[in-house]
């Protein structure tokens, strides 16, 4: 049991779960890890990522060496779209997270991975959260989408539909593709912060690439410990925002309760199929586990 004073202290901290970034605590090795990750991704993403992402990197001056100071980043980001970044010690509860988004605050991890984790780590670190997510928060329409998602999350929590809404975040904000002038482009933060998935999501024949449909996405389960078996392709950020804002989510959630989930690799007759995946990667991974 907690004594009353401790309880109140915990509640006070839990109010928004934010902590100072404590930038001075980063070591030279931490900054070097950021620089190595940044140089590798910035070079490989040219021509592969949606141009608005590169515009965001430039506008926010994220190419300066070292882990960005959130305060400096926020000055530019606030001017662009009214968003800012706040630090949290780890994952925050869903409703706290949604509330931050609804108020145009993006919750970022402040630790950075160890050098031996440069290729992969499961937990989001400051490189994933800042490099992956923040450039598009400087884009007016995507910024509005993220806020709309937060507001939708607060509503979904009241309706007990967080799992369905989480799939929307997963297949757009984290692992989304977009149809560009010269073919498909990347925009999801989980892809653009990962060297291997930046290649896989665009070039590999294994995964399905399917035109985005809100209801289809909300029915689709996802994988958290390997590359995706299906990626969903939006036509534009405007279209994504419109589809999300126009949807009458209350009745949609009620309807989804009665519908079966779709497996991560499955196709349905209504899919707007852009590429039928071979699923060779997932089969290789499964047989390696046997
Ligand atoms: Fe993320």
UniProtKB/TrEMBL annotation:
<comment type="pathway">
    <text>Amino-acid degradation; L-phenylalanine degradation; acetoacetate and fumarate from L-phenylalanine: step 1/6.</text>
</comment>
<dbReference type="GO" id="GO:0006559">
    <property type="term" value="P:L-phenylalanine catabolic process"/>
</dbReference>
<dbReference type="InterPro" id="IPR005960">
    <property type="entry name" value="Phe-4-hydroxylase_mono"/>
</dbReference>
<comment type="similarity">
    <text>Belongs to the biopterin-dependent aromatic amino acid hydroxylase family.</text>
</comment>
<dbReference type="Pfam" id="PF00351">
    <property type="entry name" value="Biopterin_H"/>
</dbReference>
<dbReference type="InterPro" id="IPR001273">
    <property type="entry name" value="ArAA_hydroxylase"/>
</dbReference>
<dbReference type="InterPro" id="IPR036951">
    <property type="entry name" value="ArAA_hydroxylase_sf"/>
</dbReference>
<dbReference type="InterPro" id="IPR036329">
    <property type="entry name" value="Aro-AA_hydroxylase_C_sf"/>
</dbReference>
<dbReference type="GO" id="GO:0004505">
    <property type="term" value="F:phenylalanine 4-monooxygenase activity"/>
</dbReference>
<feature type="binding site">
    <location>
        <position position="128"/>
    </location>
    <ligand>
        <name>Fe cation</name>
    </ligand>
</feature>
<keyword id="KW-0408">Iron</keyword>
<keyword id="KW-0585">Phenylalanine catabolism</keyword>
<dbReference type="GO" id="GO:0005506">
    <property type="term" value="F:iron ion binding"/>
</dbReference>
<keyword id="KW-0479">Metal-binding</keyword>
<keyword id="KW-0503">Monooxygenase</keyword>
<feature type="domain" description="Biopterin-dependent aromatic amino acid hydroxylase family profile">
    <location>
        <begin position="1"/>
        <end position="290"/>
    </location>
</feature>
<dbReference type="InterPro" id="IPR018301">
    <property type="entry name" value="ArAA_hydroxylase_Fe/CU_BS"/>
</dbReference>
<feature type="binding site">
    <location>
        <position position="133"/>
    </location>
    <ligand>
        <name>Fe cation</name>
    </ligand>
</feature>
<keyword id="KW-0560">Oxidoreductase</keyword>
<dbReference type="InterPro" id="IPR019774">
    <property type="entry name" value="Aromatic-AA_hydroxylase_C"/>
</dbReference>
<protein>
    <recommendedName>
        <fullName>Phenylalanine-4-hydroxylase</fullName>
        <ecNumber>1.14.16.1</ecNumber>
    </recommendedName>
</protein>
<feature type="binding site">
    <location>
        <position position="174"/>
    </location>
    <ligand>
        <name>Fe cation</name>
    </ligand>
</feature>
């Amino acid at each position: 049991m907690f004594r009353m004073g401790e309880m109140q202290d915990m509640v006070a901290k839990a109010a928004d779960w934010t902590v100072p970034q404590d930038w001075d605590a980063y070591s030279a090795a931490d900054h070097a890890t950021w620089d190595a990750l940044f140089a590798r991704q910035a070079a490989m993403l040219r021509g592969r990522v949606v141009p608005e992402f590169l515009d965001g990197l430039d506008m926010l001056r994220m190419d300066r060496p070292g882990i960005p100071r959130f305060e400096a980043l926020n000055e530019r980001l606030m001017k662009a779209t009214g968003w800012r970044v706040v630090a949290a010690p780890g994952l925050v509860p869903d409703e706290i997270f949604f509330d931050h988004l609804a108020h145009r605050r993006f919750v970022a991890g402040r630790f950075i991975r160890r050098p031996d984790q440069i290729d992969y780590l499961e937990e989001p670190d400051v490189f994933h959260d800042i490099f992956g997510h923040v450039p598009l928060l400087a884009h007016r329409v995507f910024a509005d989408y993220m806020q709309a998602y937060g507001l939708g999350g607060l509503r979904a929590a009241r309706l007990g539909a967080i799992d369905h809404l989480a799939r929307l975040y997963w297949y757009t904000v984290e692992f989304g593709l977009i149809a560009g002038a010269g073919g498909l482009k990347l925009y999801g933060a989980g892809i653009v912060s990962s060297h291997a998935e930046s290649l896989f999501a665009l070039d590999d024949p294994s995964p399905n690439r399917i035109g985005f449909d809100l209801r289809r996405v909300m029915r689709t389960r996802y994988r958290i410990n390997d590359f995706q078996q299906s990626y969903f392709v939006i036509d534009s950020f405007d279209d994504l925002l419109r589809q999300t804002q126009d949807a009458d989510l209350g009745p949609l959630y009620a309807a989804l309760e009665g519908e079966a989930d779709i497996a991560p690799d499955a196709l349905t007759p209504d899919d707007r199929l852009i590429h039928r995946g071979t699923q060779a990667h997932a089969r290789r991974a499964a047989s390696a586990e046997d």
